């Protein structure tokens, strides 16, 4: 066996970055969903033609029986299933104002959405609370999930 | 021509049951597709299920082959693709060996059925390279060693150029003979409905195309693509119920060489020869040139088809260009090679290249390739894929007689 | 289970919606763009640390394995063929032979380069035959490079060297 280097000054390392960026298309179902939201302020879900399960956000296939789905309109309102209050940002720095993230069961669908809650204080939120989406003004919408600013209590 | 005995030894081929392929499907291959990765997987699986005549409920296990997360930009890409690939509520695994995944995923599917753990296994491969910016090739910057290679600012094409130069030098092959492969495959692809870059070109077009890293020029290279492909592998008693003409998997083999690629002589793909030796031994093939009727070697570059033909034992070292020049590898020749148009003609979505390798071999042996069907009668075929820094060889031998 | 219905005329049928560059740039379809900030710090390990420190001193170091008898470069802690630790370090010469080469007109992002770069696999004198490293050739015209050419390393000045593969600027042809 030959001797190993143990002096940390002699042990070398190399720094680097991953210099890529990505452009994610929304896909067939996603494109329909975001365009409808951006242009007409309506929400689409997808109902399986065979088993009747309603997917939200919509997909072109049912994951259980692989048959096709058809788009159905829903109101976009829902109920809070769970929520959490974040006081630090992604880099562990304190936020000016705490942000509230919630899992929201969307009415008349079998799906749910994770989004922000707004116009409400953390102490007033209850599981099962009814909420509705608040959208950006039409000129600012981009066809992304951030076109919904937050969900507010009804 | 007998295969030389190399390093892999002591292999045992015990299996519980034979494996047959009864259906395959693929999406179109294009530079950029709108559908997400899950939707592409769904479209390919749907076609394969239709051809086999089964529904997703009959599928017992699923294997997904997909290239690094860096291309699609999703961490844990296998899990992301799961619901579109039919993986909900069933055992699902993801495999990846670089470009070799196109044949390695079916090999993994083979293990599932041959071991008796499943009677019906679905194999899916999907790739969405178009998400990567500034260019899909940029993701390949990270295949290189960060300390010894990346400071020199290499491009992936360099390894192909260095290998091609070595191959041409050792056997004294001219670029004109290599360009014939590109001409043949792009013309073959005109009959493929999913092709991305099918066109009729001449040897002069190839030699005058834009230089990338000499000797490699633009028309020597296959393009990056989005796409997906799927295969259904079943046990014999299921195959009997579904069809009169299943295609049997008679041999599988895979081998990798060391990462220190600069320490190897690149003119011969030893790892492909090792993998082929394994597959041929299992399939009881002793003279590949005579016993193989149709071949789909991996052709991301035109010289690669020749390089791999020699690795697979279909030609003696240095003689593959002669076979091409004499027309032996055309669809109406004695050893049709890449009748689908291969990656040069149809497109190269890394692992979804299964659609033009394993799936195409299945369609040829089942006589369902339509306009692409080769002229001669076919019994046995071989498909092969390759990957990483010239490291991986994966080989599968199929036959329509048991 | 349904009996096989192979009524598809000639599989496959092409499905999928192609998009062009313009479709994205003109926002004909919705999409999300993500610019991540991913940084790495890779350890060089025992063998390459010593190799890089050797480069700083103007030396190319290799290792040897007594079982298979190979002298290897780039160096490693264990012989990958015999699967045992290496037996010692060797200083190699800074001359070598071109095993293969290519003339590149593209940069890592596939954009065209103003001047072509000549890259080669160079087997180092003092190591076992065909033990090569990848590096750049310089002070030579592309059409004059040939396989088998003898080359010598051109180093950076002592103060500029930092213990990296780029401490060798390029390799130039050996006269005579």
Compact summary:
The complex is a heterotrimer of chains A (154), B (402) and C (176). Chain A is 9% helix and 44% strand.
Overview of this protein structure:
Chain A is mainly beta and 154 residues long. Chain A has one helix and ten strands. In chain A, the strands form two sheets. Chain A has a five-stranded antiparallel β-sheet with strand order 8-7-6-9-10, with no helix packed on it. Chain A has a three-stranded antiparallel β-sheet with strand order 4-3-5, covered by helices on one side. In chain A, strand 7 and strand 8 form a beta hairpin. Chain A is extended. Chain B is an alpha/beta fold and 402 residues long. Chain B starts with 19 loop residues before the first strand and ends with a strand. In chain B, the strands form two sheets. In chain B, strands 3-2-4-8-1-9-12-11-10 form a nine-stranded mixed β-sheet. A two-stranded antiparallel ribbon of chain B has the order 6-7. Chain B has 15 helices and twelve strands. The N terminus of chain C is likely disordered. Chain C has two helices and twelve strands; from the N terminus they run αββαββββββββββ. Chain C is mainly β.
Structure keywords:
heterotrimer, A: mainly beta, OB fold (Dihydrolipoamide Acetyltransferase, E2P), 5-stranded antiparallel sheet, 10 strands, 9% helix, B: 402 residues, alpha/beta, Peroxisomal Thiolase, Chain A, domain 1, 9-stranded mixed sheet, 15 helices, 12 strands, globular
Mind telling me which CATH architecture of the domain at 20-134 and 224-242 in chain B this is?
3-Layer(aba) Sandwich
The best one-word shape of chain C is extended
N-C termini distance of chain B: 24 Å
In N-to-C order, the SSE pattern of chain B is EHEHHEHEEHHHHEEEHEHHEHHHHEE
Portion in helices of chain B:
25-40%
CATH T-level topology of the domain at 20-134 and 224-242 in chain B? Peroxisomal Thiolase, Chain A, domain 1
What string, H for helix and E for strand, traces the elements of chain C in order?
A: HEEHEEEEEEEEEE
Radius of gyration of chain B: 19 Å
